[in-house]
């Protein structure tokens, strides 16, 4: 049985040409040294904001054991067993882990030191305002924080910061701004609440538009370098594999066990995001916009897990029941869910979020591999090194030819012959 996304509309010839140009375009050399990080997003980047937002009578999963067991050895509010991608990026820059803004806000914002970075990401946050989703009967039980809320927080923070730091513009210009991953929760809530798939597909353009608006607002305020990560391959996540489990073997990728149609949806979001980033590059040629290819950086773990030290790719480390060790009624940190003995051998931590080991490989792919457009490179050979004071970026660098060719072949197949040409 074919799913709606197997016949989804794909970009027009003009948009198709723009996407190809986004992969192949070359610009002048540009080098930069980032002295701080400013992060926006959801649970893939939240280092404790939702933990501070939640009322004491509504305990948060990530505020309980075994979250944080691997690296911090106690729950920090991160939705993983340890560090996130943003943590590895901070370490590669020689910077401290990002302070959550809400923790600082509640403890007197003006008294906190955010000179090395600040994190506005909130687990459960959406790119769109919650009122947009509620019109479709979709509800967010985690938080009402959106990307717009986070942008307002940043403006509040920046105004206060500038009152005591006359060089605040330089601070922003020398910061690596990371906007996302964001937008994935719209899809999570909608898919898991049974929303019609065509309706969900209609959200994509609005989500991309809100991300673009935020990025442009940050540049207008003085940001010089913005990284915008794409969506993960949701067809490989245990929560989706459990919810959409089917006896139709053709729905699954035989090399990975992931659901093809859900991964094609993630790619659709990511393709439109890249086209929008290419458009705003033309509007702000003085700024650098980096696409973070979370999808392919993560996707390489599934067909060859042993190469990366994994033995389990589709089962959650922390959970209970079923072929994917996931039960929405017994989430990680809630009995009877239990944690595996060695999270480093698992890609998935709790069914929706990844392990520190998986995030390390994604960060490595971004910082040392080919999974950014344009390519960024660290002055250290290891993403977890504390000896690197900055990341240097080169705007003229793109994916290696092999990666570009493979991507173009996939796009051509979808554009001219439909998704069936690229399902494997």
UniProtKB/TrEMBL annotation:
**SUPFAM superfamilies attached here?**
SGNH hydrolase
InterPro entries referenced in this protein's UniProt entry, alphabetically: GDSL (IPR001087), SGNH_hydro_sf (IPR036514), SGNH_plant_lipase-like (IPR035669)
GO molecular function term, any single one: hydrolase activity
Keyword Repressor included in the entry's annotation = no
CDD domains, per database record: SGNH_plant_lipase_like (cd01837)
Q: Which Gene3D superfamilies match?
A: SGNH hydrolase (3.40.50.1110)
Keyword vocabulary terms for this entry: Glycoprotein, Hydrolase, Signal
Q: Which Pfam families match?
A: Lipase_GDSL
| Source species, domain of life | Eukaryota
Annotated signal sequence range: 1-30
Which family is annotated?
A: Belongs to the 'GDSL' lipolytic enzyme family.
PANTHER family reported in the protein's UniProt record: OS05G0506800 PROTEIN, ZINC FINGER FYVE DOMAIN CONTAINING PROTEIN
Q: From the Swiss-Prot or TrEMBL record, give the protein name.
A: GDSL esterase/lipase
Q: Which organism is it from?
A: Forsythia ovata
Please name the taxonomic classification of the source: Eukaryota, Viridiplantae, Streptophyta, Embryophyta, Tracheophyta
